[in-house]
Design goal:
Strand content: under 5%
Number of strands: 0
Mean pLDDT: 84
Helix content: 55-70%
Largest sheet: none
Distance between the termini: 49 Å
Number of helices: 6
Structural class: mainly alpha
Radius of gyration: 24 Å
Amino acid sequence: MSPDIEAPLENRPLSSRVEALAGFGLSTADIACVAADEQDLKATYAHELESGAIKANARVAESLYRKATGEGREAVTAAIFWLKTRARWKETSIHELEGKLDTSVTFVTTYMKT
């Protein structure tokens, strides 16, 4: 792991801070409050702004993958989540009704304004 990743955010070089903040999901306007003017930020740190989210997603995916391929309850939950999102698994529910064929059934759906 890079020493920059382990260092507190305020002790990192500005480019590393910009990348980390972008990875955390902050907008360029929010990052500009702690770094530089927003236009200068976009011009100077375009790569960091783009790569921050990609690197953060990769780290979270790696962590989830490790949990999903591990043991225990966390592994089951992580594996289910992984399969639903990556392998397009889905939960289905089957409703079976029993009764005579000559019985009429009425379904009422009520929509409420919230």
